[in-house]
Amino acid sequence: MGKVLGDVLGLAAGVAVSPLPIIAVILILATPRGRSNGLLFTVGWILGLSVLGAVMLAVASPAGASSHNHPATWVGALKLALGLFLVVFGARLWHRRPKDPSEARLPKWMGAIDRLTPVKVFGLGLALAALNVKNAPLTIAAGAAIGSAGLPAGQQIASLAVFVLVASLGLLAPLGVYLLGGERAKTTLGNWKDWAAQHNVAVMAVLFFVLGLKLLGDGISVLTS
Fold it and tell me: Which of 202, 225, 220, 214 has its CA nearest to residue 6?
């Protein structure tokens, strides 16, 4: 189990450092129902990661993801494909990043966050976790890594839980600051939001590229061993 955690913690950290979800939760916390909607958004995020990871585990186990405690060939091919996707997408993002960070613009949907119903806030958290172009490949790769290790069911579930917890730290940090920080929390969260908004594309591009290279290496290792 220790080896599996070593494989998935890097992927979890990549999910945790997601500027757009962090900006989204900060904007939600600034609304009149910030406390309840912030919690709903975070629960949706955690559920999205958990469901996607669990689906991958359910697929991996009966599909023979592990052969004699060694990842099956299709697991290596999957990691190779995901890694190639992330590297190409990261290079594309880097090429399209604003030359001046102050010119960065947030997605238009963020302007409507203060008008979202609690159900839509929950759905937004779910979608940003499970359908995000970066988070979904990383969560799928983590599920494949856990499923290919030949662990008992209990250890697989525990490994997935650790992955989800670490992957959620990026949202839990601003939520904790909001709940415990008092009046100073608004200033702190505002500074975080401004920085993340300006550097969102560059951060995402670097993360895509670095994590893509890691998955490429993992995939090649599985296919050649």
Answer: 214
